[in-house]
Amino acid sequence: MTSIYDYDVTDIEGNTRSMSGYKDKVLLIVNVASKCGFTPQYEGMEALYKKYHDQGLEVLGFPCDQFGNQEPGDEEAIVEFCSLTYGVTFDMFSKIDVNGPDADPLYVFLKKESPGLLGSEAIKWNFTKFLVGRDGKVLDRYAPQTSPAAIAGDIEEAL
């Protein structure tokens, strides 16, 4: 059986990283964008990361430009924006597709493990969030409009 730890991803610096490096951590995985109405959620994601990181939380941001061209920049521009605007210190990754034939395999897995409303696997918009337990199992999927703060209780339970 495939697990989240079987996937490799490319970090924002272009390095290949195995998801197995996150074993025994609770993960909040989010497709992000710099020019979205939900972009201020970076602040809440960073707050969760700072509050729970020492207890085992990792926040993983995956930039995506599939929704309204809201992530037009390259990786360097994304890093600069996230750092300067929101003080992001959690792990960021290279820009990916989350839907369609070129969808990143990690996202294919996440969507299969935790479909959205009415069983749809498609990601509907930026800032869809997946919470993954220490055992690598997807615990829940949250809609873009769900604020990071609203997930804090579920994160505490998973920790």
Describe the structure.
- The chain is an alpha/beta fold.
- It has a single domain, classed as Glutaredoxin (3-Layer(aba) Sandwich), CATH 3.40.30.10.
- 25% of the residues lie in helices and 19% in strands.
- The protein has a 5-stranded mixed β-sheet with strand order 5-4-3-6-7, with helices on one face.
- It is globular and about 35 Å long.
Name the features:
159 residues, alpha/beta, Glutaredoxin, two-stranded antiparallel ribbon, 4 helices
Q: N- to C-terminal separation?
A: 24 Å
Arithmetic mean of pLDDT: 92
Examine the secondary-structure arrangement and name the CATH architecture.
Answer: 3-Layer(aba) Sandwich
Q: Could you tell me the strand content as a percent range? A: 15-25%
Which CATH top level class fits? Alpha Beta
CATH superfamily: Glutaredoxin
Summarize this entry quickly.
By secondary structure, this protein is of the alpha/beta class. It has helices at residues 41-52, 75-86, 105-113, 152-158, and strands at 8-10, 16-18, 26-32, 57-63, 91-92, 129-132, 138-142. It has one domain (4-158): Glutaredoxin.
Helices, strands, pairings?
Blueprint: E1 8-10, E2 16-18, E3 26-32, H1 41-52, E4 57-63, H2 75-86, E5 91-92, H3 105-113, E6 129-132, E7 138-142, H4 152-158
Parallel strand pairs: 3-4, 4-5
Antiparallel strand pairs: 1-2, 3-6, 6-7
